[in-house]
Design goal:
The chain has helices spanning 2-10, 15-36, 46-58, 64-83, 112-125, 128-140, 144-148, 177-190, 211-225, 232-245, 250-257, 262-271, and strands at residues 155-156, 159-162, 171-174, 203-204, 207-208. It is mostly helical. It folds into two domains: 2-96, DNA polymerase, domain 1 (Orthogonal Bundle); 112-271, Intergrase catalytic core (hpI Integrase, Chain A). It has a three-stranded antiparallel sheet with strand order 1-2-3. It has a two-stranded antiparallel sheet with strand order 4-5. Strand 1 (155-156) and strand 2 form a beta hairpin. The protein is globular, with a radius of gyration of 20 Å. One of its GO terms (molecular function) is DNA binding. Residues 105-272 form the Tyr recombinase domain.
Length: 272
């Protein structure tokens, strides 16, 4: 663990954070040994992550935020193993994290009037990146985890391909002119960012964009627009609502949104 601890410090983690990560990984390795009756051999599979998350949820009964913190620590450990050449890819997928309602985020639906005010605030005051993030969320209905994982080559002509959606499902989402232009404008500015060498579409000054940054971005523009705070999930609901209003069938909207069950999309319609 000392080598992993030094690696964390080298990545800019504070000492307390690094120690917390070490404890989380040690707990995972203890669970691994007890669950599979063998010593950890360095190989971490998605199956292990799913089973450990289930253990944290059903046996330990931890809250969503604590579970996500544990997964973040294990994800960092797996990045460490990848760099050492022990494993090829990181098995901790963003889909394994639990969506947590951010403090101050309203659970209410986003009404058209508030959407228009939010859109104006983003376009008026936002950077090309933030505008592209907003329109991608609002006009494609992607989940925040999917947004953060979009890679540059996932956009083919006027389609966005989600390769690893919820449940590992792949789907194609058409991009309208507004989204396409917003992304094009962002790509013109993207090269100015420190981490532009990464192949993720959306990046920040600290590297790959993460979900907490997306929540913070949307929340800030809600403040500027003087509306109740909403999050990416409300923009996803808005996409489904608008698609149904425009005449798309429930089956079509379910496919675009990546709902595994049509009843989920029907619930969107009923709750509007």
């Amino acid at each position: 663990m000392q080598e992993f601890y030094n690696w964390l410090l080298g990545k800019g983690k504070m000492e307390n954070t690094a120690k917390t990560y070490i404890r989380a990984v040690e707990n995972f390795l203890k669970w691994y040994q007890e669950s599979y009756d063998r010593e950890f051999d360095g190989k971490v599979l998605p199956l292990h992550i799913r089973n450990y998350r289930s253990f944290l949820m059903t046996v330990k009964k931890l809250n969503a935020k604590t579970i996500n913190n544990n997964l973040s620590a294990i994800k960092s450990y797996c990045n460490f193993l990848v760099e050492k050449g022990i494993i090829e890819t990181n098995p901790v997928l963003d889909d394994y994290f639990i969506d947590v309602q951010e403090p101050g985020i309203s659970p209410a639906r986003l009404e058209t009037r508030d959407f228009n005010k939010l859109e104006e605030a983003v376009v008026h005051y936002g950077s090309p990146r933030d505008v592209a993030i907003f329109y991608t969320l609002a006009y494609t209905g992607v989940r925040v985890s999917e947004l953060c994982n979009i890679r540059l080559n996932d956009i083919v002509k006027d389609e966005l391909i989600i390769y690893y959606g919820k449940g590992g499902k792949q789907r194609k989402i058409p991009l309208n002119r507004t989204v396409r232009e917003a992304i094009d404008n962002w790509l013109k500015e993207r090269g100015k960012y420190k981490y532009s060498h990464l192949d993720y579409l959306f990046i920040s000054e600290r590297g790959k964009l993460d979900r907490s940054t997306v929540y913070r971005i949307i929340k800030e523009y809600c403040r500027i627009a003087k509306i109740e705070p909403v999050g990416p999930h409300q923009l996803r609901h808005y996409f489904c609502k608008r698609a149904l209003e425009k005449g798309f069938t429930i089956t079509e909207v379910a496919a675009l949104a990546g709902h595994s069950k049509i009843t989920t999309t029907e619930r969107e319609k009923i709750l509007e």
